[in-house]
Amino acid sequence: MNVTTKISIMLIGCTFFCWGIQSAFAQTADQTVAQIKNDPSHYWGEGVGKTSATAEKEALSMLINQISVTVDNKFILLSEQITDNNKAKFTQIVKDVVNTYSNATLKNTEKKEWEEKDGVHILCYIKRSEVYKIFAERESKIKDFIATALKAEENLQIADALKYYYWALLLLRSHPDGNTITYAHNGAEPKLAVFLPQQIDAVFSKLDFRVTGKQTEPNITLYNLAILYNKQPVSNCEYSVYDGRNWSPLSAAKDGKGVAELLGEDATLHKKISVRVEYEFGDEWKTDKEVNDILSKVGAVPFKKAKIDIATKKVPDFKPIDDVISVGTNNIPAATLTKKVFMVDGSKYLTLLKKVEKAIATKKYEAARECFTPEGYAVFQKLIQYGKAVIIAKSDYVFMQFDDGVLARSLSMRFSFSNRRTFVEKVVFDIDTATGKIRSLSFALTDKACKDIINHSQWSEYSRVSIINFIENYQTAYALKRLDYLKSIFSDDALIITGTVLRTVAKVENQYQNAPKIKFNKQTKSQYMNNLQKCFQNNEYINLKFTDVSVKKGAKGGEIYGIQIRQDYYSSSYGDTGYLFVLVDVNKPNQPIIHVRAWQPEKDPDFGLYDIYHF
Predict the structure, then answer these.
(1) Nearest one of 470, 463, 415, 466 to 442, comparing CA atoms
(2) DSSP string, 386-406
(3) Mean pLDDT of successive 10-residue segments in the chain (615 residues)?
(4) For 267, how many CA atoms within 13 A lie in the half-sphere containing its CB?
(5) Other CB atoms within 10 Å distance of the CB of residue 314
(6) Are 220 and 263 in contact (CB under 8 A)?
């Protein structure tokens, strides 16, 4: 036998050996796939494609379809919206809804991949028990939304209460057991399918809109509104107004004050004002991908009580320029008097403030320049450029001595923008006692947020007002795009983060020990400021609303505080809701220093919110 023949025999033998191995692997793969397909404890889907990506997409689609077919008869709430008994339409809706679970399903889906002559094959499969865990997670989210709504309603945050009740209702419709899920509330355990619509209607029923005055401009009448809930001023509420042609963009009320702008100067044309209270908040769905996926699939639920008509009979004319500016009560009560913080008789400042109000009302802003320091007038210019500014209520100032200045709280104003989005703000004037001129302006916190801070009676009044002053200036700096101010209050080595905790925090009794490990996504101060500058340039307006304020004092360093805030962020291009944490040094109230700024879109299921003991 020559060498060539020997080599040929060896190659043939090697080929048969390799083919035998491949055949054995193929048989094993086939057996595994067959076992999975025949196992009743799994859902599965198989896809074929030229690439792994296309094969996997097809496999997932088949997997979702298999889940849909299995559970579609359980979606009782969804079936109620199909009025024409269209089975195909209902099946498609169920498939769309089940498909919203796919993002969660992907975390627990396993796959097998192999190649055949017709292309790449992928089998995606998941245990049925894992699918039911995903349903359980959605039920938990529904109940979290309800808890948030109940707390918001208690705090008169009506916009938040309606949003989370409604979102919970739509999530409920996406749950296969939505018609049977219950919720423990006030000693009862009603079915949510009944409880949530009743709760939403009850909120509308307790709202009271009243007209308190009107102002006329060329072809426009501006009505000032008082908005109450259970006879108390709402902390927040959003609504649209029918102007005679269309429903307006949303207006945001604050501390019981709102506005309605109607076409025409003749008040006899306006027999009533029709408002539609916002409860869907569709523009905010995208802040939560799960909510966005679901709410865009299940269809809206109409609530007739959301539309409220307001009588306009005998509405007095409101004149923003008045000979009398009163000194009244406000949201920071006179508690224990200190050397640095105390209420003062601000009568000598009323002429100054009256001149500023007149300049705003007549739009002759230059006439007020002498009322401000140069720095103060620069801030005032930013204020009057922040949308179309109108005074909507007679001033009722409280004057408070604070360090080397006097805070005059506050003047209610409305700011509207080119897309007709409207915000109501209360403006606080910071007066320099040495010059008798206004050196800065800020938007006041809501009454509720102020009370959250004032209630920390273990701290001095000076500390509490320092915190309020810092937060008000901080939120206003974003609205007025005061980049230089924000650069000045962030430490050069400030920690600016978003992140996730890798394990749960220590128990409450040991909260300052064994701090959790956190995976940080950091930005330097320079990076953050550059991004902020682009944000300012790309948006006509930015508006921050702070609620649910929680403050803790650091163990060392004097006036160092960790501040947790629920933040609603609005801009002309984007909006979201999340939680802000700021670690700030206010030992010098006029020169605060931020050491940490952390934002997260929602409470982490393991550790909750960033807090002072994380740092």
Answers:
(1) 470
(2) SSEEEE-S--EEEEEEETTEE
(3) 50 46 50 87 92 91 78 67 65 71 65 90 88 83 94 94 94 85 93 95 96 83 91 94 86 91 71 92 72 75 94 72 46 46 81 94 94 96 90 86 89 86 92 95 91 86 90 95 95 79 36 42 90 92 87 84 89 82 91 91 75 79
(4) 16
(5) 6
(6) yes
- Non-local (6+) Cβ contacts of 194 within 8 A are none
Q: What does the alpha-carbon distance between residue 97 and residue 91 come to, in Å, rounded to a whole number? A: 10
What are the beta bridge partners of residue 499? Answer: 520
Q: Torsion over CA of 160, 165, 167 and 172, rounded to 10 degrees?
A: 160
- Give me 332's structure tokens: 């920071």
Distance, first Cα to last Cα, the chain? 81
Place of tokens 């001595």: 401
User: CB pairs under 8 A, 24+ apart, for 91-96?
Assistant: 93/297, 93/298, 93/299, 94/68, 95/64, 95/65, 95/68, 96/297
Residue with tokens 């054995």: 24
Q: What's phi and psi for 591, nearest 5 deg? A: -135, 60
For 26, residues 6+ apart whose C-beta sits below 8 A from its C-beta are: 114
Residue whose C-alpha is closest to residue 413's, from 467, 359, 453 = 359
Distance CA 307, CA 346 (A): 43
For residue 203, the tally of other CB atoms under 10 A from its CB is 23
In contact, 408 and 395? CB cutoff 8 Å: no
User: Rounded to whole angstroms, how far apart are CA atoms 357 and 351?
Assistant: 10
- The SS3 assignment for 333 reads coil
Contact between 211 and 203 under an 8 Å Cβ cutoff? The reply is no
Instruction: Report which of 548, 599, 542, 598 is spatially closest to residue 569, judged by C-alpha positions.
Output: 542
Buried b (16+ CB within 10 A) or exposed e, 480-490: bbbeebbbebb
Question: What single-letter amino acid sits at 45?
Answer: G
Q: Hey, what amino acid is at 544? A: L
Long-range (24+ apart) CB contacts under 8 A made by 240-246 are 240/275, 240/276, 240/278, 241/273, 241/274, 241/275, 241/276, 242/273, 242/274, 242/275, 242/276, 244/269
Strands (E), 218-294: 220-229, 232-233, 236-241, 251-254, 257-263, 272-277
Cβ-based neighbour number of residue 25 at 10 Å: 11
Which letter does DSSP use for residue 287 in this model? G
Phi first, then psi: give them for residue 602, nearest 5 degrees. Answer: -155, 165
